[in-house]
Amino acid sequence: MHPRRSAQEVLLCDLCETVPLQSHCELCNINICVNCAVKHLSDSSKRHNVVPFLHRKSTNYHKCPDHADKHCEMYCEECGIPVCSTCVTSGKHKGHEISDILEKLSAKTESLQKDLEELETRIYPRYDEMASDVQTEKAELERKYGKLTTDADEQGEILHREITAIVNRRKSAIAEMKNKHLSTLNKNTDEITQKMTELKQIMSDLKSILKSNDVSLTSTYKSRNSEFRTLPPKVRVTLPSFSPQKINKDQLNEMFGSLSPLSINTEHGDTMKSAEAVSSPPVKPLLDEPRVTATIDTGYRYGLYSVSCLSEDQVWTCGDNETMKLLNLQSKLLTSLQTKSGYRPEDIAVTRDGDLVYTDPDKGTLNLIKNKQIQTVIRLQGWTPLYVCCTAANDLLVTMESDDREQSKVVRYSGSTEKQSIQFDDQGRPLYSSGYININKYISENRNLDICVADCEARAVVVVNQSGKLRFRYKQSFTPVGLTTDSQSHILTADCFNHRIHILDQDGQFLRYIHCDLELPLGLCVDIRDNLFVTERDTAKVKKIQYL
């Protein structure tokens, strides 16, 4: 037994080796005094677990399988097994690196604790989140498939109504033909009946004359037989016929409408970075003093609202009129384009292909400008498009509000196809404010694919993951307007009336402000080198700021 652990001696601290021990670190498996315990716990790189010495967990040494009377108090690094002193001296492990079993246990314990921490705090919550997303999707099945069934029923009713209308038109035509046929026959019958009445009268008169033998009547009689020898015209009517068209089932099926196939794709799961990789210092640390590197005078007279980078030295801007301007860092106007409607755009964004998109709330449209030609990509009914951004997948995310201002949502479009609608949280509560005069809701996608919205009226930055599930709200006593994100997954939002920019990390933790003598900052964007461009509402200037 180690002399310092003998029952006849005072047990001393393993670190200073001069003061009696009082505590035990279960992570490092060492015994320490009060002073050393304080220093030991100050090491924040490990999750030390210091307990009173008497409450320490006992170490159960493994019995040597080759030497029954020995415990394995050492560890062979080459063989990767615990060994006893006899194993080491017997020559079986000659030349192998041998370490103390307690030191090995301490290292392994630390590794196990790191694994446990990562599993508890990072990996399991992601699995739990995925399971929750699947449950949400399952809960939506009945509603979505129910809508498909309802759509099919409605289409069936429409076809039934059309067929009934066609049948009724045919029956009406048949009835009309029948009445016309009957009227013709009745007219013919009337003509024949009239002639027959005349003939009866003539025959009666002739019988009277013959019976009377009156010379006067007989001599004055004039025959009309020649008149009646020509019979009345006989009406011949050809009955109409019905020629039913052979029903082509394929054409009928096509006419009813098609149902797209069920597509089930299993995507490769994301590989999470290790805890060490996540906690490593950022590639581009924040500058202590951000600095303005360029100022662009846009020339708008009554307000500058949005900016979007085409390149490191060219930006698109929109402001108080229908003209969108492309300018360089020297304030030179390179291109100007006008909206299709003549109304001012609410927001602009540059796509991955370098084309410009803009929202037109007055017309309810989202428009794409390609080679100076304007195409209306989306035309909304009942909703007003507000702000727009382009995603890493080249989709468009659009914030919008219902025309009655009772609802707000975010919609993802691929081309003109709606792919996703984000409006409510897991409890069915609205994620975004509505019903206010100020409808600013700038939007951006973060590098980790979170969707970030500056909800001005709610005084919050609302962040949901790519599935639309709420991650967090950043709420302060401020009015967030412009919003953008950078390569470090920072979220930057303009605090207009306090004349500054808030920088948050990807989890919504405040990092610091950017001031740079800003006046009413509004729209934000970053270029590929993480330079920040900020619009000043009233000065109509864009400031380029280096903050990383």
Would you write up a description of this structure?
With 548 residues, the protein is α+β, with helices and mostly antiparallel strands. Among the domains are: 3-108, Classic Zinc Finger (Double Stranded RNA Binding Domain, 2-Layer Sandwich), CATH 3.30.160.60; 286-546, Methylamine Dehydrogenase, Chain H (7 Propeller), CATH 2.130.10. 27% of the residues lie in helices and 30% in strands. It has 7 helices and 32 strands. The protein has helices at 34-41, 85-89, 101-212, 215-220, 225-229, 249-256, 275-278; strands spanning 23-25, 30-32, 50-52, 62-63, 71-72, 74-76, 81-83, 98-100, 291-297, 304-311, 314-319, 323-328, 333-338, 348-350, 356-360, 365-370, 373-379, 383-390, 396-402, 408-414, 417-422, 441-445, 451-455, 460-464, 470-475, 480-485, 491-495, 500-504, 510-514, 521-526, 532-536, 541-546. The strands form 9 sheets. The protein has a 4-stranded antiparallel β-sheet with strand order 9-32-31-30, with no helix packed on it. Strands 10-11-12-13 form a 4-stranded antiparallel β-sheet, with no helix packed on it. A hairpin with a 4-residue loop joins strand 12 (323-328) and strand 13. The two termini are 58 Å apart. Mean pLDDT is 87; it is low at 1-8.
